[in-house]
């Protein structure tokens, strides 16, 4: 009965959340950023380059494997172009946002390991996801909401992977959302908040547990005990975190002083495959299928809004990688039980691009688009070697402040108690 009560109470809040997210998109993307702080430095006759953003969706049809494979292809291309076999994906992006299993991938790839290098390569992150997919799976036979609001005895132990590492131990700007049941609003774990303010540094193992939310509401407390939330998975709050990442960069002038709009961004948004519709005995979608359909619909809407924001520059500034499971025939069902095979074939599918006021069109394959954007990202890396203007001013010191520079990405208020 408790599960039913909480579900009924949170559903209108989710509708409110969706409205708030797209209100932010409409205000700041379509009508000229009129609420964004003014740029402190004026540029004359020069450019400060582009901020590179990587956004990773929650579970989807492949439970993170499509996104992980996409990152492997990106890293492989970037290693070849840079002639550096030891390069990591974190060397080529300034911001990473990940939700659910996407948040776990972000943590694996952008948290410091030995010698201040990332803990995992892209290949190692893919192996981690595939080996633990059954434990990390977003949905189970009991149904999504029953699983969310009923806590089993055992959860996946991220401590074995991250130990005592915290948000402060990440290499670049990191944004990982969850849904805070306590305040009925999304909460974004942010490196900027962890570095700049007391009360917002969390252990990476707790961040991953919270954004997965695979075993029910998780009580999560900051390292200093000042902030406490009750977290449900990030893919409930923000399955596609691309808009949150863009908003963060546009508002955070302390770290990204020269960003005036989306023309100053390079954005790679990775989906995890649109799930096939699952119908019940009466021909209607099952409850689990409905949750997936709603999640993917919101993700698609974010894609449309972001594509509209980029306008004519979307082909060189923004790419969305997504796969369509429904394109696989019934005869292939056994073959595609292997998600690695499924993800490989999704990467070979045509890339579906959202076009301003014109619906969608195909533009090459997902693999071809990944290779093209690897080239654009590498060009930006090379350009920075000869440019004296810093594109990113990443804060590596801990300070206390009365204002959070990343507050634009956090819809939830401070839930300290």
TrEMBL record:
Superkingdom, natural source: Eukaryota
One of the GO BP terms on file: lipid catabolic process
InterPro entries: Acyl_Trfase/lysoPLipase, PNPLA_dom
GO molecular-function terms, A-Z: hydrolase activity
EC number: 3.1.1.-
Stretches assigned to coiled coil: none
Pfam families: Patatin
Enzyme class: hydrolase
Positions of the PNPLA domain: 55-246
Record keywords: Hydrolase, Lipid degradation, Lipid metabolism
UniProt function note: Lipolytic acyl hydrolase (LAH).
Sequence similarity: Belongs to the patatin family.
Protein name: Patatin
Organism: Tagetes erecta (African marigold)
């Amino acid at each position: 009965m408790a599960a039913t009560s909480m579900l009924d109470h949170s559903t209108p809040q989710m509708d409110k959340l969706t409205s708030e997210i797209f209100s932010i998109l409409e205000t700041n993307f379509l009508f000229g950023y009129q609420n964004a702080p003014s740029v402190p430095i004026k540029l004359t006759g020069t450019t400060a380059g582009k901020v590179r953003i990587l956004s990773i969706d929650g579970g989807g049809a492949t439970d993170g494997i499509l996104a992980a494979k996409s990152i492997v292809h990106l890293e492989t291309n970037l290693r070849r172009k840079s002639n550096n076999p030891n390069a990591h994906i974190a060397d080529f992006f300034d911001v990473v946002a990940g939700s659910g299993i996407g948040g776990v991938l972000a943590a694996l790839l952008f948290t410091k390991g030995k010698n201040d290098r990332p803990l995992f390569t892209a290949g190692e992150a893919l192996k981690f996801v595939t080996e633990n997919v059954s434990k990390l799976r977003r949905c189970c036979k009991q149904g999504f909401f029953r699983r969310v609001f009923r806590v089993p005895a055992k959860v996946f132990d991220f401590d074995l992977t991250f130990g005592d590492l915290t948000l402060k131990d990440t290499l670049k700007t990191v944004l990982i959302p969850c849904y805070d049941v306590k305040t009925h609003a999304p909460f974004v774990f942010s490196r900027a908040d962890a570095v700049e303010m007391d009360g917002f540094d969390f252990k990476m193992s707790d961040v991953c547990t919270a954004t997965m939310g695979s075993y029910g509401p998780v009580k999560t407390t900051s390292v200093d005990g000042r902030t406490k939330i009750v977290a449900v998975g990030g893919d409930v709050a923000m399955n596609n975190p691309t808009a949150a990442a863009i908003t963060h960069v546009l508002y955070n002038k302390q770290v990204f002083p020269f960003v005036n709009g989306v023309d100053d961004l390079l954005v790679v948004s990775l989906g995890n495959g649109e799930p096939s519709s699952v119908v019940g005995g009466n021909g209607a979608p099952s409850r689990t299928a409905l949750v997936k359909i709603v999640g993917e619909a919101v993700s698609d809407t974010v894609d449309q809004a972001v594509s509209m924001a980029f306008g004519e520059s979307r082909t060189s500034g923004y790419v969305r990688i997504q796969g369509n499971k429904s394109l696989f025939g019934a005869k292939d069902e056994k073959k595609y039980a292997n998600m690695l095979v499924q993800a490989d074939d999704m990467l070979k599918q045509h890339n579906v691009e959202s076009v301003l006021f014109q619906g969608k069109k195909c533009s090459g394959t997902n693999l071809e688009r990944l290779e093209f954007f690897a080239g654009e990202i590498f060009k930006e890396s090379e350009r920075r070697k000869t440019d004296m203007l810093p594109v990113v001013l990443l804060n590596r010191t801990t300070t206390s402040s009365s204002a959070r520079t990343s507050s634009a990405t956090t819809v939830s208020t401070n839930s300290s108690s």
